[in-house]
Amino acid sequence: PVTVIRVNEQGKLTLDSEALRSVLLQEDVRDLPVVVLLVAGAFRSGKSSILNVLLRFPYLRFRNWLGDPYKPLEGFPWMPGADAHTEGIVFWSHLFRATTADMKEVAVLLVDTQGSFGTSSSMATSVHICALSVLISSIQVFNVIRNLQLAHLQHLQTCYEYGEQVQGLEGAASGFQRCVLLVRDWPWPKQHEFGWEGGDQLLQKILGVESKNKATDELRARRTYFESCLSSLKCFLMPSPGHTNYVCCLNGAVHGITPSFNEYLRDFVWGVLSPSELVVKTVAEVPVTASELCRFVEKITPMFSSEKLPVPGIMVGKTAEFFAELAREKALKEYRYSLRQVLQSNGILISPEELKQKEVNIREKVLDSFDNAPCLKLYEFNKKKRESFIKELDTSFSDVRAEVLDASKKHRKKPNLKEDLTVIFKVVAQAGSVCARTIPAIPTAVNYAANAGNAVARGLAEFVALSTGEVTANIKQ
Length: 477
Hints:
Rossmann fold, 3 domains, 9-stranded mixed sheet, two-stranded antiparallel ribbon, 51% helix, GTP binding, GTPase activity, hydrolase, nucleotide-binding, G_GB1_RHD3_dom
């Protein structure tokens, strides 16, 4: 595990950029769409332990993924006790490659977070971490103990309201993706049974869905809010592990846990990590890769470094800047690639005039791509960003045009190898004929010299033809 966002002595969040890049910029996953499964919730509620169970799934997915029942639970650091253990936001050290139900390759990142409402952290720190959590994740598991209460949903809504200012830049129907409410040690299975179905019933009850006519205005507003900002909100009721062995309770080994708990544990893990449940991280409905997520985190984290929550308008501007940078890089990469393709299309040196004509079409295409990038056309700074981008295009074209002009000059100065060698070949062949006429006394040697001269001439001619790109019937023979 790698701590990428720390909490300093003043309770402020600080980003460890080097640690962040060491995880998200690994060569084998940096360009893959990223799925971010993050576990959040109150402190001492077992977030790290459930993450370590989730860790076993990608490592052992083709076997009994729970592994050796006597093996202690390893991965993210955790320990039993009353004091908070995890600090800041912690990434697993590498991403897992996986395939979604529609056969797309993705990279899966597992993330642990500092618990909310801890005795050693302020309310501002808790809200900062929770708000960052919803901005970073594509699947957020909100972990609670024994019962789901209205206060949990109120806390979640507070965090989502700040994140919504970033994610809903273009008025998307669903600013976030998926939230799973995991209720641990659920004690009333006769009222609502364990698993997904019972969890859904409990959630509907709390949000006033079962009896809409009796629901208060506050419940209706909260339900409407979650429906508008989340693409999916589910709840899972997990039974108590029922440890029969005190050592297992301390080290997390599944030996001694009731069989029914393991069954529901499998159901939960499959419900969040199976191919059909993997959700790629998006920002303003745009899928992002691991490397793009790295830059997004670097862009937004400094806004949460003060004691106050960031002003929504500032967050919107920062996210728009993030998209402007992505749009610029992608369009510039496409522009340079298209220019190189023009230069290499037929192997013939292109004239500066023809290059300019083709560049006009390429420029028009990439500018259109830049102008229609998400979240740019709504902001005043777009004009300034566009002007800066055009200057970069001009610089790139000037560099390529200079290369073409230089190559053209060298081509004009280059001696005509073909013509010069052809003269030499004729001289060699003629020398053989002269020998045949003037030295009759040794005809065998003379004929050999003449034939050799002609053969050498033909061979060199073929070499020149190959060197200059010409293929003749004689060469093919």
